[in-house]
Every structure is written in C-alpha cells, then in structure tokens.
Specification:
This protein is of the alpha+beta class. The protein contains four helices and three strands. It has a three-stranded antiparallel sheet with strand order 1-3-2. A hairpin with a 5-residue loop joins strand 2 and strand 3. It is elongated.
Length: 132
Amino acid sequence: MITQSVEENNLVTLVGNVRPEVNARYDRGPVPDSLPMEHMLLQLKRSPEQERELENFIEDLHNPSSPRFHHWLSARQFGQRYGLAKQDLDNVTGWLESHGFQVNVVYDSGVLIDFSGTAAEVQQAFHTQIIS
C-alpha cells in the first residue's frame, strides 16, 4: 500500500482532530520541548478495497444464512486480513523511530501503533505545536 518514500514536505492538515474543549481561554502556551508524550496512538487507514471487504465480512458475521455467520477472528487473523501489510507497518515504525520515537506496540489489528517521545519530537515530526 505504501508505494513511495515519505516526503517530509508534503503535508496534509487533518480536519476534526481538535477536541471541542480545547479553546483559547484554557491556552497556557507551548509545553517544554522535553515534555514526555507517552503512549500516543497512530491510527492507520485501510485501503478502500480492504474497507469494503471488512464491511462485507462484518455483515456476513451477523447474517444467519451466511457460511461466515459467527465465525469470529482473533486479533491476529483480523490484522492479517484487514490490516496493513507487514512491510508497510515496518515502514511506518521505521519512520517513527527515525524521528526519535519509541514504538511501544504495533497492535495485531494491523492499523494501530502505540509510540512515545517528547513534545519536541512530535512538533518536528508532525509539524504541529503542543500547547497546554
């Protein structure tokens, strides 16, 4: 799914990622660069084809006439079918580590990575400011 190397200057602003209680009246300014940021979660996106397959699978799980009715998957099986390829996960974790982050867990679902670092690393890697 990842077809080219990360282009650090090709940025996209994600809309809808600021919690509603975050507003100027509570803003106390930037946090120290050394502030530990533990257990951040990076949610990855499936391809449209994988997403359609997953939706069909979920429908089949709940359809008594389907041969897949109630044939549940383990987290690992789920990740193998509907998560990112291992090579893609390795690319993403490698990129995180190249920015100084510690990868704590790559979840078996294949779409969620738990990582830790400092506010400075977050600001540098994700081109954002962390405020308190």
